[in-house]
Amino acid sequence: MIELKHVSTVYDDDFMALSGVNLKIGHGEFVSLVGPSGAGKSTLLRLLTRELSPRGGEVILDGVNLATLSSGEVPLLRRKIGTVYQDFKLLTNKNAFENVAFALEVCGVDEEEVNTDVPKVLNIVGLSDKAQNFPHQMSGGEKQRLAIARALIHRPRIILADEPTGNLDLMNTYDVVKLLMKINELGTTVILATHNREVVNVIGKRVVTMEKGKIIRDQVVNGKYII
Amino acid sequence: MKKSFKRIFSVGWTNFKRNRYISFGTTGVMVLVLVLFAGLMAVNFLSSQVVANLQDKVDISAYFKPDISEEDILGVRSELEALDNVKKVDYVSAAEALQEFKERHAGDATIQESLAELDFNPLQASLNIKANDPAQFASVVQFLEGNKFRSVIDKINFYENEKVIGRLQSISGGIQNWGFLMTMILAAIAVLVTFNTIRLTIYNQRQEIEIMKLVGGSNWHIKAPYLVEGGLYGAFAASVTAVIFYPALFFISPKIELLMPGVSLTSYFLSNIFQFLFLVFFIGVLLGVVSSLVAIRRFLRV
């Protein structure tokens, strides 16, 4: 489903973020991508949403080489994926309902369906009573749950979570992890980039360890955070 | 399609309301720009009036030999009036010319006595000719000097007045050209000010635009509400401009009328009120939409 073949990425300042990365992720997997800051975890996720293009190699999703997508096809790719970020990336001018609804509207879903689905998803993440609140009126944990609701609403086949617990306290961290695991149980592929050892060890699924732009370890079953 | 337009307008309107400080500031700058445009329209109207007045003062006279009958002179007038470049032809008979001369020099005893001693009218009947454009006098004179009228016309005062006519022409041409140049420069500045203001407004929202792209929004889906927002700045600014401009005209117009009698800004802008409102509204909305369109482009490359 997701395949990276000899992928290398170089930033403008000649920093080599990824170097010859090979990785295969199957449908419905939960993969924890671990490693220190600068290891290349976020770069790998950004390749999957075509925020970045590789300098060398191929990034293949559902048999399609992402480098061949036209700029008009990129939004269609992103609609297949739900993304959760450390800094939430919520639309500050929109309330919680509108933030979630936006991800549905871009898919061309009609108003009626939006009005039915959004409250359901807000209920799943425990934000039913905050639907009219704006992001600045919410706590860090609530913002991250809202970001997850937005990532979930269009029933994507893949969820990419880039340090989603980085700005959260312990309680909220486990709430978010539990949500991601629940989403995975329903059949969605989840790729979680983190350097939170406890989180990775609690999840206990496949763990891919990165260092200096390379994959140095791939524990397919019952993985642990080992550096 | 209909639902999509409804969504675009609804989101655009919501953004306009929610960013009320930014909307207020941007609309304010656009009001200044549109007031400047309206002012330029007023200045253009005034300068066209000055040019028209100057051109109206320029004429030439063709004097007829004393033995030519009034009927023949009126015949020449009809032929002149049939020319495309002739605006107006007035016939002044010898008697009228004398009467006018006496009235003009009523206080000059020497002239009055000299005239009294004469037992005939020394003045000639003439046709006073005004052209649509002073540059066309030469062709009118050429027409009069043709074989057909050579025997009836004594002289034409064009050559004596040629220099003055030329100078008036260059003054009115200068007013028109400089007026046009200044209008273009000020209009360009106004467009740049609007563009930069809207660019700053959209720059403030660049992160939102980036997020929308990451969530899977197509360029059109993201861009359209911003274009509506830009159009709303223009529409509101146009309304405020009209509310400011017309009362200001009532205040300024009488003062200008003192300097230029017969020229009324108020009546000009009232008689063209619908055209003016449409133009200001059109310029405002167009500036807002196009500025938004240009400004948002670079933030959509995510």
TrEMBL record, chain A:
Keywords: ATP-binding, Cell cycle, Cell division, Cell membrane, Membrane, Nucleotide-binding. This is Cell division ATP-binding protein FtsE. One of its GO terms (biological process) is cell division. It is found in: Cell membrane. Homodimer. Forms a membrane-associated complex with FtsX. Belongs to the ABC transporter superfamily. It holds the Pfam family ABC_tran. Residues 2-227 form the ABC transporter domain. PANTHER family: CELL DIVISION ATP-BINDING PROTEIN FTSE (PTHR24220:SF470), IMPORT ATP-BINDING PROTEIN (PTHR24220).
TrEMBL record, chain B:
One of its GO terms (biological process) is cell division. Gene3D superfamilies: 3.30.70.3040. Its main location: membrane. It holds the Pfam family FtsX. It is found in: Cell membrane. Keywords: Cell cycle, Cell division, Cell membrane, Membrane, Transmembrane, Transmembrane helix. One of its GO terms (cellular component) is plasma membrane. Belongs to the ABC-4 integral membrane protein family. FtsX subfamily. This is Cell division protein FtsX. It comes from Candidatus Yanofskybacteria bacterium RIFCSPLOWO2_01_FULL_42_49.
